[in-house]
Amino acid sequence: MSHDARARLSDLRRAFHRHPEPGWREFRTTARVVAELERIGVDEVAVGRDALATDARMAVPDDDEIRPWLDRARDAGVSEDLLERTAGGHTGVVATLSQGEGPCIGLRVDLDGISIHESEDPDHRPTAEGFRSEHDGYMHACGHDAHLAIALGTIEAIRESAFEGTLKVFFQPAEEISGGGKAMAESGHLDDVDYLFALHVGLGHPTGEIVAGVESPLAMAHLTATFEGASAHAGKAPNEGANAMQAAAAAIQNAYGIPRHRDGATRVNVGKIEGGSASNVIAEEVTIEAEVRGETTALMTYARTELERILYAAAELHDCDVAPRVISESPCVDSHPALRE
User: Fold this and answer.
1) DSSP state of 118
2) What is the residue extent of each domain of the chain?
3) What is the pLDDT of residue 215?
4) In the sheet that 266-275 helps form, which strands lie side by side, from edge to edge?
5) pTM here?
6) What CATH number does the domain located at 219-330 have?
7) Mean pLDDT throughout 216-224?
8) Which fold has domain 3-211?
């Protein structure tokens, strides 16, 4: 790779880093990917609804959560045509490069950032060198900015190579919330792919070293559950209420007591609780968000089933109703031995 190509990819990665966007709201990122693909000169570019199976999307946020990011992308100069094609949580791109007869190789990378505030420490390299996140509360903390640059660099390198066959690159939205993989998998774009690769940067090996394959990545499911009780004055007539906060607290406490499993590792975490109105009012409604993980899909299902059982039991204990809902999930898939070799 030439010095100019390296510099261009470095600048591109830093541009992505400055503008992280959460799942299903990666409008500016999608637009930049499309612009780079047009510069490179691929054969086909499927965007938004043309890249996804709409009904297979998971964890799609409400319009009120999507709209500010759409407006921000518009203010940044993203075309109305592209915004229309990606509106309503339809971000993502599939690029196809055809170079004669041969196998169809797929490569999957991800678009979204994470809801983490990036360090403002002057010794933090993005801060020191001027590419820190410009979106407060969000950053590319998981390396998806690097993945995008790697994928675009790979397309350009293969475009200029003697490779014979077809390359399809899947720029998947909403990876961090396990929401976009199924929508791309069921889009039809995978139907003719012979070999599918995915990539992720890591910190456990020297820079430049490539690790082929992973074993037993944790399957996961994200859940939300809303406890509904009855409000009452906490001082005057607490007996007239049904305390949704107590139900949620009981569920959280007992969730961490789910027995470990002999067949492998499991994880359970409740990361968010929201509800109530005042210190002197019995809480009528409380919502929690949780995730479960398992070394296998079966173990994840075990942890999810146990968590749901606890949610229902806690609600019944405190005379409340609860409606658990799986908002997204992803199974465990090991790397194929032949592709690893």
Assistant:
1) P
2) 3-211, 219-330
3) 75
4) 266-275, 285-294, 219-228, 321-330
5) 0.87
6) 3.30.70.360
7) 91
8) Aminopeptidase (3.40.630)
